[in-house]
Amino acid sequence: MQIFEINSALDMHLHLRDEDMLKLVAPKTSNTFAGALIMPNLVPPVTTKESLLSYKDRIKEACGDDNFEPFMTLFFKNDYTYEFLNDIKDEIIGIKLYPAGITTNSENGVSSMDIETLRPTLEIMSELNIPLCVHGETNGFVMDREKEFMPIYESLALAFPNLKIIMEHITTKDAVELLDKYNNLYATVTLHHLLITLDDLAGGALKPHLFCKPIAKRYEDRSALLNAALNAHPKLMFGSDSAPHPKHKKECCGCAAGVFTSPIALQVLVELFDRYKKLENLNAFVSLNAQRIYNFKAIEKKVTLVKKEFLVPEIYEYKNENVVPMYAKESIAWSIESIK
Amino acid sequence: MQIFEINSALDMHLHLRDEDMLKLVAPKTSNTFAGALIMPNLVPPVTTKESLLSYKDRIKEACGDDNFEPFMTLFFKNDYTYEFLNDIKDEIIGIKLYPAGITTNSENGVSSMDIETLRPTLEIMSELNIPLCVHGETNGFVMDREKEFMPIYESLALAFPNLKIIMEHITTKDAVELLDKYNNLYATVTLHHLLITLDDLAGGALKPHLFCKPIAKRYEDRSALLNAALNAHPKLMFGSDSAPHPKHKKECCGCAAGVFTSPIALQVLVELFDRYKKLENLNAFVSLNAQRIYNFKAIEKKVTLVKKEFLVPEIYEYKNENVVPMYAKESIAWSIESIK
Hints:
Metal_Hydrolase (chains A, B); homodimer; TIM Barrel; 35% helix; DHOdimr (chains A, B); 8-stranded parallel sheet; alpha/beta; Dihydroorotase (chains A, B); 3-stranded antiparallel sheet
């Protein structure tokens, strides 16, 4: 039977939420991943050392797995001081910038992407070598939001040449192309954006569990993303953007954006890379690229997968929380055999 | 207080379903409209004189309003005979063509839009002067399906110059432009496509009650539709495509396509035409154009609306059926004052 080993898988864009939802979803990542970059869009957002360290403690407790590293991020603010960032820099892997209102719990994001407004914090980050993670969408038409953000990425890349800028969860051909244009631009891509287009969300019946931000785009966009991932583009990292919402907030008349992929991510990635005969590139995409880009050494965690059918659960539950995973009740061709 | 009168409103594209759902929704149209063109996509579809007349009887009974005319349509088939169509032609206002699988209950639609395959039936329709109503979408990417269908409309218009072809529920600038290119092309447009874009469905939270086929498009498309409607383009008719599905089929993990607008259509149309100071064109858009295009005289029904707030019900129910209307629990600026 065909097997494949993933070494020290890293999820470089993850939402763990808090309280019971955190307790429900954190082990689904820490079980198979060696580390994950944790998004700071709690309510209120993570903007102080105290809230950051306290959240990290809650994550570690929820994971119940010492063999997992949560890489913490701060929620971007225009008025962080040098003293504050210098003091916190060893506790964080980056700072996440959200345009206000662009996605879940982003109400406190920046109200303007004007470079001069952002400059004070970005200059300090540049000097302290703190990467900038960006949710790159304008407030334009939903299919154009990422494309319209490209000039902003270009301005940032040019204005702060020493700042590492990560275009988070890219969904377009335009973003893939921009990767090769600026040395200091990097990107994450999710599992679901390698798999779906708008047709999967709304081409047949409407599928709220595939509703995410940025929204899934066109076939040519998916092809560009898939091509970059399968070939382990050196500036591209896996970041699931796994974003749990309870079932009642997904199947309702105003459904929240986010796809929950943590428990199936590695199985589906192996299935995908195997289908395109690119398994030799998977460890770079899912681990080595991130270690090189963020300049750290991941802890050892070896996951062995086997080509054996895995039936995805209908729902995951903990106390009063629940979440429906992507591919609920469907079969994946690969299963996890062992984790060391 | 501002008032406005609509004379003999006609809904030239309506889904009434069957059984209890029919009983629930039919009065919501027959109450305010003088007539409606009834879609034949039941299960099984309406393809015989017997099923057509029987459905018409059930509609009349469900309406409980003698002052309402259901204009019946047949479900298009490639093998209708001259004898059959000649015999039924006085009972129908048109024949509705669906590409197979393109929307609700369209599984028995045509599997090919090849002109030669369609020719036998279309030549008979041409000769008997039976209009062709078309759901014009390809099976391509969801945002491109209507645009990709334009060459098919052009081929049909050229191949059958004496056939009246109605492009149903148009959603794009491309379709509006095509109206002026061929004498024998006409169109209906829904209420919701005059109001929403993809942003309303999926730009913020996902709104299953705004999920419809064809899907709502871009702002420039909505502008083109709105411009044509507000100016009562002589080849454009109101057709709500009001398409009820029970709440549990709209708020679930595979939501059905269709917006239920019948009970609010006239109020919202008046609000819209009033906002753009085009009320003088509304009776043409909602009645006179259809009478001229389909060449009939509508029965008298005068609806007086008044500029007074109308709170849209959360849900409409009958026995075990229910349906959530567009703008549920929201306010509309105009109410129905009287119906004569």
